[in-house]
Amino acid sequence: MPAIDRDKNILGHILQYCDQVETAHRDFGRSEERFRESTTCQNAVAMCILQIGELVGQLSPAFRESHAEIPWRKIRGMRNYVAHEYGSIDIAVV
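Now predict its structure.
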């Protein structure tokens, strides 16, 4: 598969996970307090962050370079934070 098609496919998946985060956010009334109280919502959002970070790492270097205004390393870093700091995650950061 050509890199451009692969990147488009990956971006589609990233957008789906972003939509899922938005849905969780909406379902909890956009309330930080309700988010803090619900481990179910926290876990749902954390899983989406993990997936987004993994997918970002699969985008072609050429695509990432052509969109240097997007903080790719920070997105990937957030994935690593969620993956490796679970149990001590600062929910305000999430």
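Residues 3-84 form one domain.
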